[in-house]
Write the structure tokens for this entry.
Amino acid sequence: MATVNRVAREICGKALVTCCFTHVYPGGPAPYYTVIAPGRRGDQVKQWDEIKLAVMESLIDLGGTITHHHAVGRDHRPGYDRQRPELFADVLRSAKQTLDPDGLLNPGVLI
């Protein structure tokens, strides 16, 4: 919370940040953050990406994981790449090449 509050305020000038745990597992909770802050017109995605990156780094540094039951997707890909074993990526690349040789299904999402 300290990280997301600080970064959101630095980037947006002010921010309201909430966090809730909708799922708690034996390995720990799954935090869901809501950031409400003023956006600069035309720059909102860049602002969000900067906040997201800072939160992701903080969660990883504290021992958290980026993956969750909603999968990874493009938004979580940078953190996922840092955490998944390279052998797993190699196997996934091989399976994707065999099953989707034209790269039509979710290109660039996991590999």
